[in-house]
Amino acid sequence: MTTETLPKQENADSAIGTHVRGYVERVRGGELGALPAVFGLIILCVVFSVLRPSFLSALNFANLFTQGAAVAVIAMGLIFVLLLGEIDLSAGFASGVCAAVLAVLLTFQGWPWYLAVLTAMVTGAVIGLVLGSLVAKLGIPSFVVTLAAFLAFQGVVLLLVKNGTNISIRDETILAIANKNVPPAAGWIATAVGVAAYAAIQFVQARRRAARGLVAAPMAVIAARVAALAVIAGAAVYMLNLERSRTAIVSLKGVPIVVPLIVILLIIWTFVLRRTAYGRHIYAVGGNAEAARRAGINVDRIRISAFVICSFMASIGGIIAASRANSVDPNTGGSNVLLFAVGAAVIGGTSLFGGKGRALDAVLGGAVVAVIENGMGLMGYSAGVKFVVTGSVLLLAAGVDALSRKRSAATGR
Amino acid sequence: MSQGPILELRGINKSFGPVQVLHDVAFSVHPGEVTALVGDNGAGKSTLVKCIGGIHPIDSGEYLFEGERVHVNGPRDAAELGVEIVYQDLALCDNLDIVQNMFLGRERKSGLVLDEDTMEEMAAKTLAGLSVRTVKSLRQHVSSLSGGQRQTVAIAKAVLWNSKVVILDEPTAALGVAQTAQVLELVRRLADKGLAVVLISHNMNDVFAVSDRIAALYLGRMAAQVKASEVTHSQVVELITSGRSGELGIGNGIGAAS
Predict the structure, then answer these.
(1) Would the CB atoms of A276 and B136 count as touching at under 8 Å?
(2) In a domain? residue A351
(3) Is the pLDDT of residue B137 over 90?
């Protein structure tokens, strides 16, 4: 067996070796994880910055984050539904409905921003409750339920914004989400605290496992992870803290407020999925619903809750979108938002077959989608070309997912 | 080990609509022994096991556990008594690792957070207690395991909870020769640890290799429950196919009551 036979004082080199070998084995066995998204991101960034140097400018870099934020947040919620092997096609327009609710309450009813935001989020949760109940209790396939909701919500948005006018948002707090920045010093402090906290958690965890004689990640691997996080986060904060104003009158620098918002959501959902029994049960239902049922897990409740989380996150995505556009119109959450969100999740490594995926996938995949859209925009391609390319990338990602699944089956994983 | 039965069924009847599947079945299981439950397709083995596991309620009859009458109305009740069933399709989640599968639905928590370390330790201890040495890492996904290893994990999952009776539904049906031997060895070890084991099998070699007692069902009736040492291979086959064999079996007075 594993634990008893392992010598406690393992040779450091061999420990790292085993760790690396284990990782390589997993990748070869079809568990690609974040690799395709990371490689795709690097290649895309290199290509675009060679073809259009302005891609790398501080202004455009900050743009990428605000552009991709709404899609990444919606994708993060979608991952819960995808983990169960279900789909939510209405997430895009659900975000539109919530954004419209927000706009109506803020602009027409004059509600304070916090009440309007709360109502929008509750709207999202209720939408999820209805969709989830229809899928879990009535047994209608999620594809059909959410396709119907897709159409219906499109109508709801139209009704809410009174047939095609657009509602502008003037509330300072809501506008700040996508348009204002964190002061540069605060950005650095938050980054330092975050990296230190990550390092501490990793270190304490490894120590505790080693003390109990369990296999722990070697210190060198932990150090490498912490260093990678510090370098990536540090570089991003540095870029975002550069002056990106084109005029000398107003200063424009700092991390956009959506970025810490996404990071917090990412941490929360990662914690839920990886460290709580609820998260474990989500994976179990996605992997083998019958086994989950026999283990005493309430499968219906898990299904419904996943749809609630998905639509709830869509409401936050809608709020971000409304903030970025300064307004809500009948197309908010429409056109390509849903496909981009599904694409982001799948490109990030979440499987459409259920049982595999992480909250981080939404952010990585969201970055890829944002880079494609942004870079092709800079190259001056038309919307038509952008759609074709993004569609192809989604198909490619789904192909990689299906192939890696085949490979897993072939190698017995 | 010759104390009384830990689990005893008397006069069990079970019908599905107009079809009576179990007729007046008596069945007893002793701690420290492997009881093989044999019978042809449709003889009622699965129904009997599901009645024991609380999945099907019994129509009439007595269910005694440790000498006391109990009412088992659902899988939870059975699990609380210490009765665990390992089904043929194993009920494992391929996308979870060994520890996660063993604790599925009964995770250890400290506060809100899963206590992974304790779970891993307990899983390691259980597997070591069963002398399982074929698993490379407790953190590998179940999908990467061989059939025999998956069976081992499913069995370990069943014994993790201080269960007293473990029922195995055709554990070797899909396995190769070497893996079958491994699993049978494990079955024998469970009994040697003092558990009562029920082994459902079609394979006479397996049955005679590990069991202490053999219970043969024939068309929903208990044809005979005998010590394995007292019968031959062909007698058991006769019991399965015709419900009687010489002195043994239905209609000879010895059968069900032994």
Answers:
(1) no
(2) yes
(3) no
Q: Is B132 on the interface with A (CB under 8 A)?
A: yes
Query: What's chain B's average pLDDT?
Result: 85
Are residues A130 and A75 part of one domain?
yes
pLDDT, residue B139, reads 85
- The answer on A302 and A161 residing in a single domain is yes
A287–B contact, CB cutoff 8 A: yes
Query: Which pLDDT score is estimated for B160?
Result: 83
Q: What is the mean pLDDT of residues A46-53?
A: 89
Comparing A230-239, A253-262, A403-412, which segment has the lowest mean pLDDT? A403-412
B238 to chain A, closest Cα gap in Å: 36
Domain at B7-82+163-257, CATH homologous superfamily: P-loop containing nucleotide triphosphate hydrolases (3.40.50.300)
Q: What is the DSSP letter of A33?
A: T
Size of interface A-B (CB pairs under 8 A): 94
**Structural domains of chain A, count:** 2
The pLDDT score that the predictor gives to residue B35 is 93
Domain range for A377 is: 52-180+277-410
pLDDT one-digit tens code per residue, A335-376: 788 989 999 999 898 998 888 999 999 999 999 999 988 888
In a domain? residue A19: no
A112 lies in the same domain as A197 = no
Q: A23: distance to nearest CA of chain B, Å?
A: 12
pLDDT above 90: percentage of residues in chain A: 50
In-domain check, residue A70:
yes
What average pLDDT does range A6-15 have in this prediction?
Answer: 50
Kindly give, in sequence order, each residue whose CB lies less than 8 Å from that of residue A148, ignoring residues fewer than 6 positions away: none
pLDDT computed for residue A257 by the predictor = 92
- Per the CB < 8 A criterion, the answer to whether A315 and A100 are in contact is no
Q: Is residue A262 part of a domain?
A: no
Confirm or reject contact between B178 and chain A (CB < 8 A).
no
A351 & A384 share domain? yes
* Chain B residue at shortest CA distance from A274: B114
Question: What does the domain layout of chain B look like in residue ranges?
Answer: 7-82+163-257, 95-161
Distance to chain B for A209, nearest Cα, Å:
7
For residue B231, the model assigns a pLDDT of 87
- Considering the domain architecture, whether residues A245 and A286 belong to the same structural domain is answered as no
Looking at the partner chain, which of A3, A209, A283 has a beta carbon nearest the beta carbon of B95? Answer: A283
Residue A65: closest CA among A217, A233, A309: A233
Contact A288 B107 (CB under 8 A): no
Q: Are A341 and A76 in contact (CB under 8 A)?
A: no
Contact B120 A296 (CB under 8 A): no
Give the B window 96-125 contacts with A, CB below 8 Å. 96, 100, 104-107, 109, 112-114, 117, 120-121, 124
Distances (CA, A) of B94 to A127, A358, A408, B140: 32, 17, 11, 10
Determine the residue of chain A that is closest to B85 in CA distance.
Answer: A294
**CATH assignment at residue A86:** 1.10.3470
Name residue, tokens 């209405």. Answer: A90
Strands B34-39 and B196-200, sheet pairing: parallel
List the structure tokens of A168: 């502008």
Domain boundary among A204, A221, A256: A256
**What digits encode the pLDDT tens for the residues B73-82?**
877 788 888 8
Give the dihedral of Cα atoms A82, A88, A91, A93; nearest 10 deg.
160
- The number of CA neighbours under 13 Å toward the Cβ of A174 is 31
* Amino acid letter, B245: S
